[in-house]
Write a structure and sequence with these properties.
- By secondary structure, the chain is an alpha+beta fold.
- The chain has two helices and six strands, in the order ββαββββα.
- The chain has one domain: Roll (Ubiquitin-like (UB roll)), CATH 3.10.20.
- Strands 2-1-6-5 form a four-stranded mixed β-sheet, with helices on one face. It has a two-stranded antiparallel ribbon with strand order 3-4.
- The longest helix has 10 residues.
């Protein structure tokens, strides 16, 4: 497999934006290193690098909420990736479908969250740790 030349940051990471193939909603942004990208392309399932835990992770390994890759793109500067996925369950570890559930007015005032959680994070993560 030949990958396009990518621009990773000083930590060897590149941002990955993940979008739902059906709704086109942006689900999340996470970081990938070269190994995570390689694993993603090899398996067809999203893999990431956790900066906080300093470890490789497969989306859904704890929650069961997986992301199957349907397509991907590289931006014009080759420093950001965009993945279109089939999402199973919620993408956000807080229980929402998307990590971008909190919106704001142009002046910075939070708008009440207009959606419910799609899963209970306490039940999902507590029982599997």
């Amino acid at each position: 497999m030949t990958l396009p030349p990518l621009k990773y940051n000083a930590d060897g990471l590149i941002p990955a934006i993940v979008q739902d193939a059906t709704t086109h909603r942006v689900l999340m942004m996470a970081w990938m290193n070269a190994a995570a990208l390689e694993a993603t392309l090899k398996t067809g399932c999203m893999n990431y690098w956790s900066r906080s835990r300093q470890k490789f992770w497969l989306k859904g390994e704890t929650s069961g909420h997986t992301q199957r890759v349907l397509s991907w793109a590289v931006d014009c500067d080759a420093d950001t990736l965009l993945f279109t996925v089939q999402q199973t369950g919620g993408a956000c570890h807080t229980g929402y479908e998307s990590c971008f559930f909190q919106t704001y007015t142009p002046g910075g005032t939070p708008v009440p969250v207009g959606e419910g959680k799609v899963f209970d994070p306490a039940a999902t993560y507590e029982s599997k740790q």
